[in-house]
Design brief:
102 residues; mainly alpha; 5 helices
């Protein structure tokens, strides 16, 4: 999600479940509104594929990873409740994919 709830008041958390289209951030200034690093690419040029394509891309990426490398360890730490076998096979569901892309 490219929109920060910090722009809204604290009661706006209820909007998170009902609002579908959030406005994009106008600027990505470092250290403002939860931006830690400048973007690697212009936001207008980024196209995020539909979820079914993301699922297959993530599955293929995880299967190609070195199982002893730092990227695989990161996935294991990020999804500590998933078994290592599921991570090795790239078995992820929608909330986990969203968590990876956020």
């Amino acid at each position: 999600m490219l929109f920060s709830l910090s722009l809204l008041d604290s009661r706006a958390i209820a909007l998170l479940y009902f609002k579908r289209d959030w406005p994009r951030k106008a600027s990505f200034k470092t250290l403002e509104m939860n931006v830690e690093h400048p973007p690697l690419a212009e936001p207008q040029k980024i196209i995020i594929p539909p979820l079914n394509i993301k699922l297959s891309l993530i599955r293929d990426l995880v299967k190609a990873l070195d199982k002893n490398g730092p990227a695989f360890e990161y996935l294991h730490e990020k999804f500590s409740r998933l078994s290592v076998a599921k991570i090795k096979e790239g078995v992820f569901v929608k909330p986990q994919i969203k968590q990876l892309f956020s």
